[in-house]
Description:
Two copies of one chain form a homodimer.
Chain A lengths: L19 H28 L3 H11 L5 E2 H8 L3 H13 L3 E6 L2 E9 L1 H21 L5 H20 L5
Antiparallel strand pairs in A: 1-3, 2-3
Helix pairs in contact in A: 1-5, 3-4
Amino acid sequence: MNDAAPLLDRESALASDTKLELKVWLRLLTCTTLIEREVRQSLRERFDTTIARFDLLSQLDRAPKGLTMGELSSRLMVTNGNVTGLTDALVREGLVSRAPEPGDRRSLRIRLTAAGKQFFDGMTPVHEGWIDRLMAGMTRADMAHLLELLGRLKQSLAAAGAQK
Amino acid sequence: MNDAAPLLDRESALASDTKLELKVWLRLLTCTTLIEREVRQSLRERFDTTIARFDLLSQLDRAPKGLTMGELSSRLMVTNGNVTGLTDALVREGLVSRAPEPGDRRSLRIRLTAAGKQFFDGMTPVHEGWIDRLMAGMTRADMAHLLELLGRLKQSLAAAGAQK
């Protein structure tokens, strides 16, 4: 076992006979929390923006035809209400546009505006640099293996009905 | 590569040339979000409580002598303000006690009460069962390896200064 350096976190003082499943979950949560905290702080300091906004813009950036509100909330794994509030703000700031779907006026389609695209393109390489730096202590082989094992976990979660 | 079943999440429509670091981060975030969502919903339905409360009680359960507010916020990786609000509520409900440190009256020590211990002991096996079920699709070997790789990631994060 390759234990991490002592760190006060959710794993602190965990009994040595703690179940493997629980250890994996707590370490997963610790890693996610640490990365999120770094990214949150860096986005605020460098771009005066939030993770939620960055995530929403990144989904739209990968969808040249835009996304419906439902698609956005699925991909971001948040509620429709969350997406609505966030979209309202981004529309006001001119970073995204929102228009009724042709043929289905109850459905709204969200797209990046040119200003939104420009703003996001400015953040992308910087954000990638932060993630690279945080993972710089891992080998490529370890990262590839971690990605594969997280893929198996994701399959396990889907099989257990955690998908929706 | 053992890719997960199609699922609308943060990895959707990711370009195939996306950097490995970013893929790992997005998949890590997806897995954490899925597990958190399940645990949040189950805690609410079964015990009418929240993840934040469960986490705080679980830290105190592992600390027979109690923890100071500072230790609690470090281990839970949240701000002092968050811990204070949460502790206020749990004190009112009689689940934890809060008293000045002998010899350092500016510092407060939090402990589980007997009622808090009883409440937490009732949740523990049920919570473990949820995590077991979510990871049931993974082999022991995969879980052990995942724990090890997450340990290396945690070391990398600490080395990159994400610890504090």
